[in-house]
Amino acid sequence: MRTQVGIIGAGPAGLFLSHLLKAQGIESVILEARSRPYVEGRVRAGVLEPGTIETLGRLGLDARMRREGLVDEGLDMRFRGRTIHLDLPGLTGKSVMIYGQQEVVKDLIAARVEAGDPLVFEAQVTRIEGIETDRPRIHYTEGGTDKVLECDFVAGCDGYHGAGRATMPQDILQVFEQVYDFAWLGVLARARPMPDMTYTNSDRGFALCSRRSMQVSRLYLQVPADTDPNSWSDDRFWDELHARMFDEGRTEIEEGEIFQRDLAKLRAFVAAPMQHGRLFLAGDAVHIVPPAGAKGLNMAVADVRVLSRALTEFYRTGSRAELEGYSTLCVERAWRVVRFSSTLTGLLHKFGHHTPMQRNLQLAELEYIAGSRNAQASIAEQYVMLNYLPDYP
Ligand code: RFL
Ligand code: PHB
């Protein structure tokens, strides 16, 4: 098999890239290790930033999101039983959209399959060779058979454990990483959600009330990193959530059947450069942020918007200028996003190593935000706009 751009991974990065390239008449093949039901069923992100929403619109793939997504105009942060309300449109002129990552992924897969464009599931990439030549080759296994995809460029959109980053010459790759000793226990519950996305900092730890629809709540609790999600009974989950949200009367948060549980480990990670020869990496393959800023998916989409424009320039004019600048541009933005996500994580979570001094500084920071419109505007701007790229597709 031969194509122009060989894409590894059918997560948000790989799928968006394939559609952005197709819109410019550039062919690609996606190789995805997992099955279609597995990829479509993976519960992850829920918040789409304006840049991601607009790109879906330009691709003509936003019909279901417009119908079923929930526009989110408020971001609440609780502490000491009080609520800081950030009015996103009032502070930034923009809002975000609640629409599950797996819904975006389903829409992008359906459109690609319907168009008859190649997307191979259960195709595990084992090796990439020739990235310093004009004809890189991707080796993969499909149905027990070894196969090769020849291409002009390889896009490693294959997540944190993928083959793309492992292929980079390790002597040029710089890696920065911080692993947290706590995780997020996430559940989906059939219960009417809170009206606004609500984060809380309590003495018992962090919690977050988000949603997927008007009938389904997406709820998170900070837990130790080695927690087994099934070790938490429903009653224990609800008791803890009410307590951390300062909902002692249990009047605010509606309870319902918990039908899905997962555990997300928290880490901040940046690998640079994001390219070598004809290999380009995007998304979780090269950067991970702790989920408190709701940024990972949006950052992955921003990467491939930059990459698709650079590849388009190359195929139209033969110029490599934008391709050569890809990593520099994206790494700089990645650091800004890591900074924001790490800051929010530090502001809202309970840290075992915190002294009373540090706990009081955390609360003082929240008090300052509560009393300062400028501080609120700064958080709102970063929550909504950090991946905004007005000059990109
Ligand atoms: P993905 O989605 O991990 O996709 C990579 C794909 O590559 C495949 N793959 C391979 N295929 C072939 N051969 C190989 N050798 C392969 N190795 C791997 C994998 O099977 C997979 O399908 O990476 P991508 O596309 O970079 O997308 C990144 C996002 O998925 C991720 O950043 C977000 O989910 C992070 N995130 C959030 N991001 C947001 O923007 N907003 C949010 O609200 C948000 N909430 C979250 C989150 C992540 C969470 N977890 C579970 C970590 C909430 C949580 C709980
Ligand atoms: C989600 O709805 O899954 C969600 C919302 C906000 C975050 C992370 C995840 O910061």
TrEMBL record:
Keywords for this protein: FAD, Flavoprotein
Pfam families: FAD_binding_3
FAD-binding domain ranges (all copies): 2-341
SUPFAM superfamilies to which the protein is assigned, alphabetical: FAD-linked reductases, C-terminal domain (SSF54373), FAD/NAD(P)-binding domain (SSF51905)
Gene3D superfamilies, alphabetized: D-Amino Acid Oxidase, subunit A, domain 2, FAD/NAD(P)-binding domain
InterPro entries membership: FAD-bd (IPR002938), FAD/NAD-bd_sf (IPR036188), RIFMO-like (IPR050641)
Protein name (record): 4-hydroxybenzoate 3-monooxygenase
